[in-house]
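ASSEMBLY PREDICTION REQUEST
Request ID: AP-0331
Submitted by: J.K., bench scientist
Number of chains: three
Total residues: 901
Priority: normal
Notes: Please return the full assembly, not individual chains.
Input sequences:
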Amino acid sequence: MTGDTKTDLFRLRRRPWTEKITDQSFRLLATVLASLVGLILAAILFTVLAGSRTAMASFGLGFLTTSNWNPVTNEYGAFTAIYGTLVTSLLSLLIAVPLGVGTAIFLTENFIPLKGRQIIGMMVELLAAIPSVVLGLWAIFVMEPFLRPILGSLHTTLGWLPFFSTEPQGPGIAPAILILVVMILPIITAIARDSLSQVPTELRQAAYGIGTSRWGAIFQVILPAAISGIAGGVMLSLGRAMGETMAVTMIIGNSNNFSLSLLAPGNTIASMLANQFGEADGSQVSSLMYAAFVLMLLTLVVNVLAQWIVRRLSLRYT
Amino acid sequence: MTTTPITSSGHRPGNTAKSSLHRQPNLPRNRWNAVFTILAGLFAAIVVLPLLLVLAYVVIKGGSSMSLKLLTDLPPAPGMTGGGIGNAIIGTLIVSLIAALIAIPIGVGGGIYLAEYSKSGPFASFVRFGTNVLSGVPSIICGVFVYGLIVATRIFFDQSYSAMAGGIALSVLMLPTIIKTTDEGLKLVPQELRWGAIGVGASKFVTITRITLPTAMKPIATGIVLSIARAAGETAPLIFTALFSPFWPEGLFSPIASMSVLIYNFAIMPYDVQIALAWASSFVLVMMILIMNIFARYLGSLNRI
Amino acid sequence: MNASNNPSTRPQSSNPAPETCLSLENVSISYGNGKNVAVNNVFMEIPKGKVTAFIGPSGCGKSTVLRALNRMNDLIEGCGLTGRVLFDGQDLYDKRVDPVEVRRRIGMVFQKPNPFPKSIYENIAFGARINGYQGDMDELVESSLRKAALWDEAKDKLKESGFSLSGGQQQRLCIARTIAVEPEVILMDEPCSALDPISTLKIEETMHELKKIFTIVIVTHNMQQATRVSDLTGFFNVTDLVDYEGKVGCLEEFGETERIFNSPAQQATQDYVSGRFG
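STATUS: Completed
Returned structure:
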């Protein structure tokens, strides 16, 4: 029963050292590969921060509140882009949430036969697969020309409001909002649909069992039960809308002149980056990096919040 | 003991309004139900409409100009006619391939770590959290990152814009999806299967590579195909990493054309020829992506495990 | 301490003591990094070449003890063991011991049939290859299937998936897979609990053949099965500990199967085997 006899007895099926090394290297490899995620995140943050250093030093927090963007005089302020980012993403969310949740309800209740619901569900998923740049192309040549007279009449009737105070002249914030709606609808619909279908059948039956009408059950029982997933999905789409680049860049008009009017051209941080980064140098690159840092921070906060909401609210029903 | 009949108990008085079970469509309750039902159907139609419209225009405007010449020629110089998108098609394939070759090993490895080596624990939660955060990083930021890391520093043979840089930017975008699908795919593998392998004396490495990973192959492959399809359509990470080139690909360390950047560049040109090529390119790109999506669905529909 | 203060280490038997294969010395196993004690202070000597059955009510830790015998508990995070498990005189839980090598010598058959998603042939060849088998693989597959009494049913479909077999056949395939590695000990964790009576009978017949070659330890819920297949029986029970909240498993009594079922020394054993609880 001493250590010496052990080695003798286990020699029969002794694993060769190569096998043990393989086993351990594989574990090490997997660990290293997993930690690359953290490394990449750190590298992204570092690269963007390092690139924006000079702009941060020269403009400080004033960068966020001034809207003067002038590569000639090297004066930069990202207020127009930040405002554009917030206003496009929030307004698109305002339109997309009822549409998406309504569609999700339509797809989880049995209004039409299962086959039809599956087809609609598949189409929503395919919409998510259409590249942003193709939607942008469509927006330029199909959606915007179609929309212009409608937006024009909005200006003539509601032009006294600052939000409709300019004549629509093609690209602008309003068409950008609408194309964003198209882009985030599949996300909201898919997540809301998942959350709704996870509501326990017992809960549904309990509602019907006490004589609630169908929509009574939906509004009073099913939607509240699914609210955590839906809220998380809304936050995720907000993050996506803020960072969405191509379609918005192609239709927003890329103007750095600040205007409250939704019918005027504008900018978002993402569209500004896409539009200017390639041709910029010197302090403009640094200013763009600074703007990129702001965008990163915004999406980070929104995404972390989304995860927190899902975790916090979903405890009740799982 | 006398028993009283209990027939009437629990019933409403019979001589008031007829308590019929027939549906009364004019009740406010039923009216509201009808209104909401119609509204939900309307919303669903509104959501589906853009897909149909976009597909219709892409097919009409892009599909109509399809020809072998278009698929194999170089784009024309501004103001010239003819030409095609051959270099952009090849470029998209090359850049997506680079991205896949980088992201698949890292993503599958990371997923294996999460599912097989460390289900819980602070490091695993950190990796999961990081994966979620990374999947929320806007694609344009990936471009800015790779620009700062590779293009501006010229670390690849003193080259600035390159196919490689574009591929790396796309791989950052694909990584979180692949990690997640690998993690989730491996979690679907019944624990008993791992025990079976361990029980006959298999090491962890052998168990994972010979039993667990092959068993979870279908869901993982589905996720990978979807992530490649997504990356192939991405533009923002490419416009200032891979840039664009009107020529055939000149190697991995030179600027390279891609369909998505071609669409972006040509859509805002004042020439009809270029705009037509943008539509044609959209058609090819959308078809490619739709086929990959359908293929992924097919993979997913095969018997799982 | 334990309810059974003097657990009988060696099976009480009139025959001369057979050679010991596995011996447990004061083994306690806990889950959740020591928070939940599953089984406490087990002393036991499992003889070579015999079938030893573990019986007892659910939660008594009999499966946990079984899984400790080839370090399968290593796969459960936060599972810890104190005491010693000696196999041929060596402590399986010594730091220098490679658990993978332990499992090559002590095989295991699980509760649910778990064939690999491979062909019947590959199911058996897999383990043999891992263990560096040098001989004729076809021969090994045939002999293993024969020993597991599956050859006649499977010989015409060796290339078909293991899942094409019925539940009972799948479990015999898993037994064949374990035999092919030629371990010294086979651990069986309720191998028949997911099977119908006819399959159960077939597997019991298989076990009668196998005990000529292997040492077998089997956990079973079915007391008739224990009397049919085993030479020795260990009865595990749940008890309260003085200084611990909740129930803890312990080895109540261990001895020849016939004695455990006909004239047990402990009242709890008597109550359990006569069906009064559990």
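REVIEWER COMMENTS: DSSP finds twelve helices and two strands in chain A.
SIGN-OFF: pending second reviewer
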